[in-house]
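[SOLVED] Need 3D model of a two-part complex

Original post:
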Amino acid sequence: MAHRIVGQRFGRLDGADKVTGAARYSADVTLPGMVWGKALRSPLPHARIVRVDASRARALPGVLAVLTAADVPDLLVGRRMFDMPLLARDRVRFVGEKVAVVAALDPDVAEEALAFIEVEYDELPAVFDPADAIQPGAPLVHENPGAYHGAPAERPHANVQSVLRFKLGDVDAGFREADRVFEHTFRTQLAHHGYIEPHAGVIALDEDERVQVWASNKMPYRLKELLSHALELPPARIRVNLTPIGGDFGGKGSLMDLPLAYHLARVTRRPVKMVMRYTEELMAGNPRHPSVVTMRTGVTKDGRIVARRATALYNSGAYAAFKPAPSVNLGGTSMGAGVYRIPHLLLEGFCVYTNTIPCGHARSPGEPQMLFAEESHMDMIAKELGLDPVELRRRNLLRDGDALANGHHLEHVRATETLDAALAASDWAKPKPRGVGRGVAMGHRHIGVGFTNAQVRLETKGTVTLTIGLPDTGTGAHLVLRQVVAEVLGLSIDEVQIELATTDLFETDSGVGGSRVTHTGGRAAFHAAEKLKEQIHAEATKLGTPDASFATIAQAAAREGRTLEAVHFYDAKSHAAVTSFTAQVAEVAVDPATGQVTVLRFTTAHDVGTIINPLGHQGQIEGGLIQGLGFALMEELQTAEGRISTLSLGDFKLPTIRDIPPLTTVIVEDAVGPGPFRAKAIGEGSISPVAPAIANAVADACGVRIVDLPITAEKVYFALQDRKGRS
Amino acid sequence: MIRLTVNGQAHELDVPSYRTLLDCLRYDLGLTGSKEGCGVGVCGACTVLLDGKMISSCIALAVFADGREVTTVEGLAEDERLHPVQQAFMDAGGFQCGICTPGQVVAAKALLDAIPHPSEAEIKEWMLGNLCRCTGYYKIVESIQAAAGQARA
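Solution:
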């Protein structure tokens, strides 16, 4: 079906504020009388707090308040599992945990005051590695986590937060059918999301004693609920005001410092701003879980996978509070099955407490970890079987009607087509020089679900205003929603404006995350616009002029004191029977003298639905892909004894503009998505297969198999040396 | 007391000696376009021009700008007309969340002032100090190429 506006390549029409500096992010919000909050953090991974003396800090000129655990309610917060105190009470559990908080007239004074707070600690035995943490007799991070609100029931060890399990068939029987069984273990690193905007928030109590909130948070309605609990206030007393968000990638959905900013505002009777330093982000944000993944696969002689068992140990850190899923685990665990039909399957993810930084969700949570293991494992099996890695994949790819690990049956499976597209575009079969290798990896991702409200209103000048409670985390979602409304109503893009609702307007909204916004926001906007269209038609019929302009119709209604408007609440509860496949090919050169890996070119193929804005769509592919490249090659929060040593963006390396390889994107379009105009999702499709594609290419280039990320020059160099030594 | 000119406007102000230029711009002058990302001169979100030269304002002291001229992102558009670099970043998808964009466009303007028609390698060399986590940089390169093309026209 041909569309007018949907499918057009629009630039960021909504972006003038962002290129001129006029856009007000949370850290830019400035209110009269506003003061600054700063937090004092624990220097120890596990200790009893013996004594806190804030009297010297309180006496400093310019300091308005110092709060410790004794000054704030004794309650626990979280997103699903509520296990984290507002300030450490009696005990600190990781380096970076907040112990006290200061409000001062000036941010520099606030920071200076922290040095005057005296805390006496009594150090306790700590545990840092998840494998150690689940041994009998390991130090306990929490004595009785089962008692926490939202704690899952299954708990094989007190240091286990949650277990997530996916099963198909009978895995033991499956392994008995196998001719060969392969087992490999992989590790992935602790990595921060790398958004450039640190967490920021401003809290003010207005004249009606309502709590006004500006925060870098992508789920305003959930934030209101969580604040209502944390502040012990009815939801009606809280209003979240939407601001632009300076990058999210899964990291901006928690309360972070907001409850403390509230208590400082309550005590000082002033608006309070708290902005984390980037060092604090790297020390105490909510980064991607490190993992240890063991893959065990049974295959027949002809390369058919008959059974697989995958076990992931995720180092979740000292609190479960940052994980939003009801499972309190990582859904990406299901990607242990890859893109393959495996009749007998058992996938298990264990989130484990340790005395390290609490981890959270990061772009396609759990998937980059699992797929690195899974797709590396596939190449290792192919090598052992003497099969071409592409051929092994082909023999096992999902087909229409196959069941996924979560029990869903798939339709419109385009796995083979997507793989073929990537291979063709990457010159897979062409000869390559010595020292150069190619690697392939695949993945697929669901189209997100959730619920969104959209309201559309016909203005008397004939334009339409779309009101929405979803912030734009940068994806260009607001432009997509305008396109949807313009398409339905036959307007130009300029004739549809967007207005952001505060949390006062709608009842609820699931916010941004999980590749849902084009789907849920798009469908809400679509149906609201359809309703408005009906009203407009009815109005025109009433006027007796079926071709009356929108302005005429709106003005006629206005004369009778009416506004034409419609609201739609769209709620997608379960996943569609389609997913989006990705196939990627990395071509790399390995320098035998240094181990340095250079990505010479990269090919990414995507099976997508209707593309609403090709420019934004491609931007999601490219951005995710380069995050995947960073995860593959350089990003790592290095830790020793629970202390992170890479505490600046100078040490925690993100890809720069010089690190990007020449890129070929192939789009395999098939309009079968659940989104508006049969759109699918794209935000999380490109990140996960990058690391295994590169690892497989490195193995192809120099015969060295790296099983722990990131693939640094040092690791490749020592592996090359090791191999030389043995031969 | 320091005197500095910001986007063509003269200012006289008292600032503590430890005040960074970025904090001075954001808090003393209310120019919140320049952003603090890393805070250690690595990410480039705070990039401004000091006498036409690109610097990280988060690691420069305000007193260092005494008697000098500062250009921030707020000073790039002329009479409501966007600078070609700003327009190109919008048209070509050179930003997503926008937090690094003030620094990107200031750096790109400085690049085109110095090298009106840069090669791709020159763009990458110049823009190396401006991190972006959303775009993967491809569309930043395209935006700057488009802006350079417009400048040529």
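Edit: DSSP finds five helices and five strands in chain B.
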